[in-house]
Amino acid sequence: MINIKLASTYLYLLIYILLSSGVILYNKWVLSPKYFNFPFPITLTMIHMGFSGAVAFFLVRVFKVVSPVKMTFEIYATCVVPISAFFASSLWFGNTAFLHISVAFIQMLRALMPVATFIMAVMCGISKPKCDVFLSMWLISVGVVISSYGEIHFNVIGTVYQVIGIFAEALRLVLTQVLLQKKGLTLNPITSLYYIAPCSFVFLFAAWCLLEKTQMQVSQDQNEFNYWIFFSNALCALALNFSIFLVIGRTGAVTIRVAGVVKDWMLRALSTVIFPESTITGLNIIGYGVGF
């Protein structure tokens, strides 16, 4: 007899893996000069945040799917604003890396996330350096170095962007734990988007005005803006956030982390098929194996 609850849990995990992989591949296709050729990562990220914030507003204020939390100006200024800034930075730099390096190599570099999170946690005083943890972090770093050495199309600029994005994401995670939990706030993905997405949009808009506005105007004069591509891309990103909510609600953060490992391996294989330039070498595999 089929266990409906267990089957639905596996279905949610499958949806999460497919959406997470799909969003990454879709972003790469949109941004890459070899494909859709929209080399404006800030603009793409800003579209995601604007769309997610608008949908979250309707879900919270109009349809009342969830209730907003008690948010004061002091909490918003000291918690939401810095978290939003680093969230916007992590997405911005992570998407910029797509312009320079392959999806497979990006996923290998993301093995540094535990290292970055540990370093940020120690700096913020919520973790203490321990010998066993330090050894694990050292092994992960060695694995990433081996993968980088084995990367055929290694690009320094793209690697730097991705590493900065990883550390920005790590700092966002640590700040979320330090600031929001200290204030006793609990945000689910919908209320997180409701508060954080609009603020992230403002940060991205400021960067867009300085770095991409002029280039966008020139590009728009030469090419027609494809609204369907960007709407579907933003919709996929929003669906991914909701799938994370469903998986965590059904299983937990540990299970979604394991599913993320499965997704990483699948994504590397898919990226080599969809993007022929995304070649995986033996050293790449060895390096990721050491890091994992």
Automatic annotation (TrEMBL):
Cellular localisation: Membrane
Transmembrane portions of the chain: 7-26, 38-63, 75-93, 99-126, 133-150, 156-175, 187-208, 228-248
Keywords for the protein's UniProt record, in alphabetical order: Membrane, Transmembrane, Transmembrane helix
Cited InterPro entries: Sugar_P_trans_dom (IPR004853), TPT_transporter (IPR050186)
Occurrences of domain Sugar phosphate transporter (ranges): 11-290
Membrane topology: Multi-pass membrane protein
Cellular component terms per the entry's GO annotation: membrane
Highest taxon of source: Eukaryota
PANTHER family tied to this protein: SOLUTE CARRIER FAMILY 35
Name the record gives this protein: Sugar phosphate transporter domain-containing protein
